[in-house]
Amino acid sequence: MRFDSAALRPFRTGAVVALGLFAAGVALRPLEAPAWQSIRAGQPALRLESLKDALGQGVTVGLLGGFRAIVADLFWIRTNTIWEGNDLPGTQTSIKLVTAIDPRPLYFWLNGSRMIAYDMPNWRIDKAGGYDAVPDAVKRRFDEEQSSVAIKYLENALEFHPGEPLLILEIANVHLNRLKDNETAAKLYLEASRHPDAPFYAARIHAELLRKLGRNAEAYAFLKQLHPTLPTNDIGAMPDVVLGRIRELEEEMGIPETQRFQPRHASAPVLPAAPPAP
Amino acid sequence: MSVASVPFSFSRLSLIAGNTFLEAVRQKLFNFLLLLAVGLVASAQFFREFNFGSSELKFISDFGFGALIFFGSALTIATTAQLFFSEIENRTALTLLAKPLWRAEFVFGKFLGVFAVIGVFCALTIGLMMALLWHREGQLMDIRPEDFANGRLIAYGDLVVVGVLQWLKFGVLAAIVLLIASFSNTNLFTVVTGFFVLVICHLQYLARDAWGNVDNPLVGLVVRVLGFVFPNFQLFNLADQIGQGAGVSPIVALQVAGYAVAYIGVIGGLAVYSFRNREI
């Protein structure tokens, strides 16, 4: 029997092609690696963990590099439709899917966490028989469980948007409004307020929570430090409101007139004297 | 006169490329996909109502690149396969290759023709998207001048860079399709395999992440080898960096462009090798 070398030609060609591609991949890795590292650092959405929820959901086209924004938007509309039906597992899954497809917009993270923390406990109470039938301890448990999910979700968001004050504020809001944990909320409002892009109210709420916790001296010191940093031309800064709270604390703490805080820039009069009797 | 007796000729190569280009632009498929992509980019403004997360200009840019990538990939795969197999099926390849013409001239001529067509597609789509963004940004500057205190927000140079890199990615894809066509017997097989390879190249980094550290050393080795065999197409996904921080880094753009050009050369060379071993 004669050996026909021509019969092996397709295999030989295939092997050479595969070997050539492999060699090219190895040779080009030093060129690819630094560029890939840089691109990935700027796009956390490219991490496997963030895409696990999205894979197999028919969103491959969106993940191939195009239409990510529009696919996420369409899934957000679907999320709202599911949300209208008070479908807890469906809504929760859909919320996570949207941010898995496109984790860039804060809108999805913030509104998704609000659905989880504020709406879902009510759905669970309704399902368990309504507000009158469900014991307070069970209501509290529902609040705690949903808050925990929302906080984890927002902490995940912080991996994509490190140090984003709006996300930290949202976690603080959950601690304050759902868990009634003023201590943790105060810490988080302070953390958010330290960010240059933080809204001014973060610092004001921090001080108010210190007052609620009975730490007036701390609140007074904080507000005295805060006031000189507030711009007078920004409506959200409200230096007069802050000065008013400083004066209230001075009254409460019995600080003598001579030792009271003197604002550096002129503000509108605070706690004006009562008008003269007619 | 045999092929070995004539030197490699760029003029013959450019003749094939020019002919391929003319053939491609006369195709209904090219015009259809171009119209779809241009229509979609132009209609991005009407889809603004569906936008919840990102800023309006970012949404238009994302939408435009989405159209470019989706229709550009479809066009690259379908056109390359169709133009290659039309030569085989019409027997014009036999006539051509019976003359003193290198197979490398034939393959690279085909490649350059398709690459030029895709270039026209990319230029039109990106040009339209930039015009749309410029127009809308101008309108927004009139409505909310406080948001544009430092001038225009869109880095139009970055849009061009990302558009060029996408074009290069389509070049790598066209070379891959030519490589598949060089041993495939049918147009359909080439198109379907081309789409599968496109998906693999886009998602191969996920496999590298997921299976690179598996306990089974054999599986790990196979995945690592596959990670080297397929080019990483996510590398070209720089559109997300437009308008973020310092924008698209010129060094990264050059590295990615170099990666694409090197792959085009290597895969094109392998397509020539495979085509030389094929009986027509």
How does this model look, in words?
The complex is a heterodimer of chains A (278) and B (280). Chain A has 278 residues and is mainly α. Helices cover 66% and strands 0% of the residues of chain A. Chain A contains twelve helices and no strands. With 280 residues, chain B is mainly α. Chain B has one domain (3-276). Chain B has nine helices and no strands. The longest helix of chain B has 41 residues, at 103-143. The model of chain B has no long low-confidence stretch (mean pLDDT 86).
Brief summary of the model shown:
The complex is a heterodimer of chains A (278) and B (280). Chain A is mainly alpha-helical and 278 residues long.
Give the helix/strand layout:
The complex is a heterodimer of chains A (278) and B (280).
Chain A (H helix, E strand, L loop, with lengths): L8 H34 L5 H4 L8 H4 L4 H17 L3 H14 L4 H22 L8 H25 L4 H14 L3 H12 L7 H12 L3 H11 L12 H15 L25
Chain B lengths: L9 H16 L2 H15 L13 H34 L2 H7 L4 H41 L12 H28 L3 H25 L5 H13 L20 H27 L4
| DSSP strand count of chain B | 0
* Helix vs. strand class of chain B: mainly alpha
> C-alpha Rg of chain A, in Å?
29 Å
Question: How much is the average pLDDT of chain A?
Answer: 86
The number of helices of chain A is 12
Distance between the termini of chain A: 127 Å
Number of helices of chain B: 9
Average pLDDT of chain B, rounded to a whole number, is 86
Largest sheet of chain A: none
- Beta-strand residue fraction of chain B: under 5%
Cα-atom radius of gyration of chain B: 21 Å
In terms of DSSP E residues, the strand content of chain A is under 5%
> What structural category do the secondary elements of chain A indicate?
mainly alpha
Query: Main beta sheet of chain B, described?
Result: none
Give the helix proportion of chain B (percent range): over 70%
